[in-house]
Amino acid sequence: MEDVKGLGANRAMMNVRGRFIPVVPLHLAVGANGAVEVPQDGVLIVVETEGAGRAALLVDSIVDQRQVVIKSLDTHYRSVEGVAGATILGDGRVALIVDVDGLVARSLAEHGQLDLSHPHGLAEAA
Fold first, then answer.
1. pLDDT tens, residue by residue, 4-24
2. Distance from CA of residue 95 to its chain's centroid?
């Protein structure tokens, strides 16, 4: 994948139409073990966040696409970091909905790439 450039351990940037955006490995953000660790072995999903701008989420694969009704956890349980809500699947199982804005912002802040004083959150390169 020539459009992805490594920046050290667990850091990479992806060239999207001439702009470099950070790659956020979802497994690191949610604490999952045994996940794809390099972009060449997974799928990169470009997302637009409200606070941090664009980022590419590194996931193992895309399994399915569904239209769902999202229920807030705050109303029925409590706020959970990294989770935007939940939905009940057709077979009765509960699926958690990832808080993409929060996970991207936290990941970028941990790597010094997020500046909350900047309008788009991204730190300027020196």
1. 887 776 688 999 988 999 999
2. 17
- The residue type of 103 is L
Query: What φ, ψ does residue 58 adopt, rounded to 5°?
Result: -90, 115
Angle ∠(31,37,43) on CA atoms, nearest 5: 105
- Residues 14 and 53: their CA atoms lie apart, in Å, by 14
Q: 31-44, pLDDT tens digit by residue?
A: 888 898 888 899 99
Instruction: Describe the chain by its helix, strand, coil percentages, rounded to 5.
Output: 20, 35, 50
Q: How many residues does the chain have?
A: 126
In this prediction, residue 93 carries a pLDDT of 92
